[in-house]
Write a structure and sequence with these properties.
This protein is of the alpha/beta class. Helices cover 30% and strands 25% of the residues. The strands form three sheets. It has a seven-stranded mixed β-sheet, with helices on both faces. It has a six-stranded mixed β-sheet with strand order 8-2-1-9-16-15, with helices on one face. The protein binds flavin-adenine dinucleotide.
């Protein structure tokens, strides 16, 4: 049985590694031609410390990738302990890919007939599967900055949503060497660059920022339930049957509220490897395991339909609280309801 994996990002490379452990050797395709200075697409480096269990399953040691712990962390002025950290994603991808023979090209139609199973791990491109049932993508802009302060002050890790005149948030994630990612992801704000510059400008009394690089990106926040179909069977010219199956962000394993996709894409790849080759069973497990993403998506749809008209409902506030809780962020319930539920002044008007 010949297997190809299109995409050697987090999901594709991890899947290739753990399938190889099971004696299934896939041809991996990725042209890796990313127009970013780190050489990788989607420079998200924030993850829960629990990522270590996925890394050790693939024979990797979390200590080799851990940059900074993000505890405490500032959530719109509320400080909380978290199990979040930043990881060196380029190094992790390099190591996940080591030992794999990656064909440095995008997979093309003409490559497909050679395979019985083709995995679409192409992230936002979703190059092989048909379009999602109801897609939703979040534009992002991220700077990598060096922040210097008088007296060795450090920028606080944090996420800030309530000031944005749109649905989304700004993040400050510490990296190494005094570098930080400062990014914004939101729906409905045309001038993300201006907003981010103003955001940095406001801190310029305390910090001097040098922008080292910047990149724009898009994250699929549709949720798996709205990213179906994720299995397609078709016939090849020589009469065989071929299955295309999606994994990771191509099928929406990303938290719609936060845009976190790293650990969920690893988990999705693990479910696929464990279910192999029962793809119907895999599909059921993914939909069930990530059913909370469907609820988050429904809240986003509700808020988008309510621009300027309504307030988050009780269930929306609860879902925000559950999201933080799921990530191990312990916020006082009532305060979290007030702050995280307000989401942005776009929904509720400026904070009084
Ligand atoms: C700016 C930004 C910040 C983010 N921050 C975070 C964060 O802090 N924490 C977090 O958890 N998540 C974050 N995310 C989301 C997270 O990075 C993704 O959800 C995750 O990387 C998805 O992994 P993946 O392997 O499914 O897709 P990807 O990482 O996108 O990998 C897909 C791969 O497929 C390749 N490819 C595309 N088309 C083809 C083709 N036709 N043939 C072969 N290969 C192809 C691409 O080159 C790419 O290497 C962020 C995303 C962005 C854009």
């Amino acid at each position: 049985m010949k297997v190809a994996i299109a995409g050697s990002g987090i999901a594709g490379a991890y899947l290739a590694r753990i399938l190889a452990e099971k004696g299934i050797f896939a041809d991996v395709y990725d042209d890796l031609s990313h127009d970013t200075s780190c050489g990788y697409r989607s420079c998200g480096w924030g993850a829960p410390l629990g990522i270590d269990k996925y890394l050790s399953y693939a024979g990797l040691d979390m200590d080799d990738y851990l940059l900074e712990r993000m505890s405490p962390m500032n959530f719109d002025g509320l400080t909380a302990r978290t199990p979040l950290c930043t990881i060196h994603k380029p190094r992790l991808l390099r190591d996940l890919n080591s030992g794999l023979e990656v064909r440095k090209k995008k997979i093309e139609e003409s490559d497909l007939p050679a395979y019985d199973i083709v995995v679409d791990a192409t992230g936002i491109s979703r190059s092989l599967l048909p379009p999602c049932r109801s897609d939703l993508t979040l534009p992002t802009l991220q700077y990598r900055v060096r922040a210097e302060a008088e007296g060795g002050d450090r920028l606080e890790a944090g996420v800030h949503g309530n000031r944005i005149p749109a649905l989304g948030y700004v993040w400050i994630f510490p990296l190494d060497k005094g570098h930080y990612h400062i990014g914004i992801g939101c729906l409905g704000l045309a001038q993300m660059d201006e907003f981010l510059e103003d955001f940095c400008q406001e801190m310029s009394g305390r910090f001097h920022f040098t922008i080292l690089c910047s990149c724009r990106g898009t994250v699929r926040v549709a949720s798996p339930s709205y990213s179906t179909p994720f299995i397609v069977s078709r016939g090849t010219v020589d009469g065989r049957s071929q299955t295309v199956v999606g994994v990771g962000e191509s099928i929406g394993t990303v938290s719609p509220f936060t845009g976190e996709g790293i650990v969920y894409s690893l988990e999705c790849a693990r479910i696929l490897a464990d279910s192999w080759p029962d793809f119907e069973g895999y599909s059921r497990k993914v939909l069930s395991r990530f059913s909370w993403m469907k609820k988050e998506r429904e809240t986003i749809d509700f808020l988008l339909s309510q621009v300027g008209k309504g307030r988050p409902r009780f269930r929306d506030r609860w879902r925000f609280y559950r999201n933080a809780h799921r990530s191990g962020i312990r916020l006082p319930l009532l305060e979290a309801f007030r702050r995280m539920g307000s989401l942005s002044m776009w929904v509720e008007g400026p904070e009084k």
